[in-house]
Amino acid sequence: MSTATASAEKTELKVVSDATCTFCGCVCDDMELTVENNQITKAKNACVLGKAWFLNHNIEDRPMATIEGRPVSLDEAVERAARILTESTFPILYGLSDTPCEAQRVAVAIMDWIGGNVDTTTSVCHGPSGMAFQGVGEVTCSLGEVRNRADFVMYWGGNPAESHPRHFTKYSLMPKGQFVPNGRKDRTAVLVDVRKTKSAKAMDIFLQVKPRADFELAWALRALVSGVEIDASIEQVTGISLEMLKDVAARMKAAKFGVIFFGMGLTMTRGKHLNSEAILALARDLNKFTRFTAKPARGHGNVTGADNVVSWQTGFPFGVNLNRGYPRFNPGEFTTTDVLTRGEADAAMIVASDPMSNFSQPAREHLAKIPSIVLDPKLSDTAKIATVAFTTAVYGINTGGTVYRMDDIPIPLRPAFESPFPSDLEVLQKIEKRVKEIILERRTKS
Amino acid sequence: MPETFVLIPGRTSRQGTSLNEGKYSAEYQEEINTVLACPADMARLGLKDGDRVRMWNELGDVVLPCKAARGDEIPPGLLFIAYGDKSCQFMGADTHCSGMPDSKGMDVYLEKVSQ
Question: CB–CB of B84 and A165 under 8 A?
Fold first, then answer.
């Protein structure tokens, strides 16, 4: 990292090299940011999403904290938050995918102190894949290995051209790697999707699968890879001809290093974890013939970090309940949509997430009824209904810390300038301290 | 006469860029409140860009503008909408023991709304 500062009259100019973009799961760490008077004016190397992320970042004129919409001091808000959490019987924690690992760690610790429910945006993202990992296992690799080795790259149920714009150029298709010296020419690229998205243009083969037929398509490929004959009627089921499927299966087996990046087109569609299991099993099967891996394409900047932190603190990646004093993992029971829909949660702490704008209606209705604590840099539907709302600094732009890239590689953050707002970590540490004090006071009295 | 479609909510590049201007920006709101269909389906239903349609199923019921998708991006019988309040109204609360509600591939009805 190099930082150069120059003063020209009233303009303070700073260049931050090797900064990290936390907008998506690629967390590209080669940004060169030009900062003028606490405003990022250039974001070299950033994609269209990264540029929007950096260049639109302003210090907003909002209160640092509110209680029921009324501006209050930070300490007053912390006190109310700690009271809400310690006086509830089924407190839940949700979000965490857009905050550094250091803050995630403290958030989970708070739930540990009060016997709460820990869940992250993973449960409505690649949670089903997390279940599939436990059923099948994961043949995995880093994006560096993909860059240097992969000669067969398949995207399934995702649209990286729009969701991860640098995935093709930085990791998977375009780079000239050690064992693929001619870059794109040395790689076969395949897209499986129900829509012919912008990503299709970058591919050699596009398989337009019928809606809700991903599971059947994955199993057809598994069968063909294993030498099992299947009927030509598979085309009526999946929309893909048997001839095409045989060709793709042969290419997969002939590859020296293959990878499947799979997205939420699988996890959000009928079948869910069974779809992910089918993809992971296909990759596993292919290792009888060659080296083959499968990776979920993760969305938010540190959703992978959330999985890692919750796993090393509780033993499970999401949907964990600590109410009995030990962790219990059960998707469908302890995942946030479910505990809200059943009306079980009686308090919520939401960190860097907006469930009021993306949860099902019954879940949203219950969340709006219970006291909630929300930490978010921006105003959101969830912040609007919060009992206690904290405006926090933006991670990666205003605060440091650690995030995990979608391939589980930890990446340090290099902030561009300071924010007048506290970081998630600072707020959570204050809440944890006060929660511990209240618990200790209660124990002393009893 | 309403027709049945399969609704696929998803993320878009425009949603990603306008998100940074704020979820209440006009561009973001337009993106999450417009449903896309293939040009052939639009023509058959007598729809043009900006026409309002009613989309509903047993869970949700919304009226919103529609737009033709570019080229052959969307096949006949499919609808696309950027994730947001409208798409969430079609998500069921049941996660089938997975934590994940059915969030893509929902059956919906669609019909033109008289101006």
Answer: no
